Amino acid sequence: MTQSIAPRADRIRRLLEHLRNETTDEFADVQTFDTKRYVDPEIAARERERVFGRVPSIVAHGSEVPRPGDFITLRLPNNNVIIVRQSDGSVKALVNMCRHRGALIEKEEKGRCRIFSCGYHRWSYDTDGTLRTITRDNTFGDIDRSVQGLVELPCEERAGFIWVVDDASGEIDVTSWLGPEMDGILEGYELDKLITFRAEGFDEPVNWKIMQDAFLDGYHVQYAHPNTAAKHIHTNVMVVEDFGQHARFIAPRKTIDKWLEEDPGDRDLSKNITESHYLGPNSTLLRQPDHFQLLTFRPHPKDPGRCRMEMRLMVPTLEDSGLSEEKWNHNWEKNWKILLAVLHEEDFPLLRGAQSAVESTNSGSLLLGRNEVINQIFHRELAKLLA
Ligand code: FES
Ligand SMILES: [Fe+2]
């Protein structure tokens, strides 16, 4: 069902039709699957190798490391990494490990530095990873320094985000991974002009796919979020553009209801919908009228029953917003708190429960319905990568 980009007005018209008829876009068929995908260490190892070790995934927004020497550290499925801005403006991903005897070279979650200096025997590296000093080198012995730099992972900045392939022997080409449709869509959003207001990670005792699935799901809104999201968004009504490895989907806000009886004509109804994107392999990007929200789900390096979710809010800069600093902060702070409350009080308890349930020995098989189109796309693409 791969399709080309449809104008938003056409998609919104289709959405209204669905709402009137109590229908939604549908996938070709119902899928049956095994709970093994959430608990099996072998499947998890294959995902680390064939998914995260081969295709680019988003690790940060460029504004999180704005100046040369700015860095963040994170644990990817295969590697502990340092993401660091270079003096030429590019970004590198370096394995966070000293090449002498393996100490963790950077312990801070974020910061700014001129060199990375090891706490164990004080070797130091330039921010591009080059080995710079070996302490007491007259006694250490001759080595080829050029091959003892910090190990570099394929890394690229594109569409405002920093992408990494989590394997040093891999290659990165974000444009071709995104494909012409999604690359064009992201380019059009000018995400590089925004800044991250806040980014936070949550270590959850849940398989990353259970988490990712919940944030591609338009079917649970009314049942899991009756007093929050469901007050504003319709349940189980979606128009999907399937781009293969990625997808875009819209759902109606309740403010659209006044157009159920009446033809909206040429009116712009974009404020009456939510627009979301599945960015393979492990992110959901939500486009709001005045900001974006990115959700990323990363498997734990060893345990299939754990993952790290990251949430970040990308917003117009203070200068571009035209707001006072106080108003700007207050506005986004409030937004952030609402998002956190829904996560912690509504989604996480449900998903932790799901993980403990699928760990049952006799769990039987599970289903994805035709209405769960984006989830179907997510699992279809994952299966292709794993095959
Ligand atoms: S382990 Fe880093 S200097 Fe020895
Ligand atoms: Fe939810």
From TrEMBL:
<dbReference type="InterPro" id="IPR017941">
    <property type="entry name" value="Rieske_2Fe-2S"/>
</dbReference>
<keyword id="KW-0223">Dioxygenase</keyword>
<dbReference type="GO" id="GO:0051537">
    <property type="term" value="F:2 iron, 2 sulfur cluster binding"/>
</dbReference>
<dbReference type="InterPro" id="IPR015879">
    <property type="entry name" value="Ring_hydroxy_dOase_asu_C_dom"/>
</dbReference>
<keyword id="KW-0001">2Fe-2S</keyword>
<dbReference type="InterPro" id="IPR036922">
    <property type="entry name" value="Rieske_2Fe-2S_sf"/>
</dbReference>
<dbReference type="Pfam" id="PF00848">
    <property type="entry name" value="Ring_hydroxyl_A"/>
</dbReference>
<keyword id="KW-0479">Metal-binding</keyword>
<keyword id="KW-0408">Iron</keyword>
<protein>
    <submittedName>
        <fullName>Dioxygenase subunit alpha yeaW</fullName>
        <ecNumber>1.14.12.19</ecNumber>
    </submittedName>
</protein>
<feature type="domain" description="Rieske">
    <location>
        <begin position="58"/>
        <end position="164"/>
    </location>
</feature>
<dbReference type="InterPro" id="IPR015881">
    <property type="entry name" value="ARHD_Rieske_2Fe_2S"/>
</dbReference>
<keyword id="KW-0520">NAD</keyword>
<dbReference type="Pfam" id="PF00355">
    <property type="entry name" value="Rieske"/>
</dbReference>
<keyword id="KW-0560">Oxidoreductase</keyword>
<dbReference type="GO" id="GO:0005506">
    <property type="term" value="F:iron ion binding"/>
</dbReference>
<dbReference type="InterPro" id="IPR001663">
    <property type="entry name" value="Rng_hydr_dOase-A"/>
</dbReference>
<dbReference type="GO" id="GO:0004497">
    <property type="term" value="F:monooxygenase activity"/>
</dbReference>
<keyword id="KW-0411">Iron-sulfur</keyword>
<dbReference type="GO" id="GO:0008695">
    <property type="term" value="F:3-phenylpropionate dioxygenase activity"/>
</dbReference>
